[in-house]
Write a structure and sequence with these properties.
The structure is a homodimer of 208-residue chains. Chain A has helices at residues 5-14, 16-25, 44-57, 59-69, 82-86, 92-113, 117-120, 134-158, 172-190, 197-201, and strands at residues 123-126, 130-133. Chain A has 208 residues and is mostly helical. A two-stranded antiparallel sheet of chain A has the order 1-2. Chains A and B meet through helix 1, helix 2, strand 2, helix 8 and helix 9 of A and helix 1, helix 2, strand 2, helix 8 and helix 9 of B.
């Protein structure tokens, strides 16, 4: 146990994510895995790959910058699409194990970096959002997990979009998907002169 | 193994849901559990209670009506708020175990009811949607799981709505929640002459 309840309660969520992802996705038939959450969005494999990227390049590296440099050194930009090339041929089961391993290492390092509430009040500088606290980084890490896991559910549901027949009218997870795809199509059309494939693919996912 | 791939692949998802729910929610600190997914929506406890109700009164009873009566007997209406009174004082851990137990019984019964693809083509009558197949019922059961689990993620995220600070601007799971609450407030105002508390509470969740 540490001196901060907020840290303990955040870790209680963060340590669940790889276990939940494994319970949901490990060994699931491929027929569930083929669709992205919205048109141009992410499949379950993309999401787990992105979570791996965030363990490597986002949360702990940024926490370390806050502790070491405070607001004098802005965070490095984070590549939200690093997984696309890196994980191209990696099986989902391997990605799930890799994510679990990295998350374990991250939480161990977090316990070194944050000892008390005063540590959580330390400030850093986000390149776009300005000053943020380590407490806000930690809350964002957890909500980012929840956001992307919810995205996995939408991708799994998408594979049954027509199979549910007339019940689709009652299933918000499918209706929201259509609404998001329609909105993306509109904004993609507006931006078609300038937006490349990578930016289009990013429309569906949360950024960091 | 049965004769139908669709049944096996649906069961592969359905049997995961209670395990995923337990992995996510069992023993999680109460500070994660206090908010509904949207204003007037459902907390994690509500969702698990509703999933219990659906095991008792929706999926298998409707499958049995299809197999026994075909389209001659419409499904019974399903009370989406049965959990509100029934589970008022039941701890979340007990609800999770109850749901897992009922889901196991449901899947065992499903294996009795569905032996081959011809069984999946059997038709029943939904009181509002008209003719539906057992295959569509099964797909809907799985997507209904995904829809409500995604709702749990939104409720957990809601507890950190202010804690994430300026990062909220990047977190779709929180932004969509605000948008849904704003839309509900508009429609609730429109319907204020006729809608009681129960109907208002239902605005956030998928129906069946």
């Amino acid at each position: 146990m540490t001196g901060t309840i907020f840290l303990d309660e955040s870790v209680a969520l963060l340590e669940r994510t790889p276990r939940v992802a494994r319970e949901l996705l490990s060994g699931i038939p491929d027929s569930w895995l083929g669709e992205p959450d919205t048109v141009g969005g992410w499949t379950a494999r993309d999401v787990i790959g992105h979570l791996i990227s965030a363990e490597l390049d986002d949360w702990i590296p940024r926490a370390e910058i806050i502790v070491r440099d405070g607001t004098s050194h802005p965070f490095e930009p984070f590549d939200r699409f690093a997984h696309v090339q890196r994980d191209r041929d990696v099986p989902l089961g391997t990605l799930l194990e890799r994510f679990a391993e990295l998350r374990g290492e991250s939480l161990s390092r977090l316990r070194d970096l944050v000892r008390d509430d005063a540590d959580l009040d330390r400030r850093g500088r986000h390149p776009e959002l300005g000053e943020v606290t380590l407490r806000e980084l930690l809350a964002t890490w957890a909500v980012h997990d929840l956001d992307h896991l919810a995205q996995v559910y939408a991708s799994l549901a998408a594979s049954q979009d027509t199979a549910v027949g007339p019940w689709k009218a009652y299933l918000g997870i499918l209706l929201r998907r259509d609404a998001a795809s329609a909105a993306d199509a509109t904004s993609a059309a507006d931006a078609s002169e300038t937006a490349g494939a990578v930016e289009t693919a990013g429309a569906a996912g949360p950024v960091d």
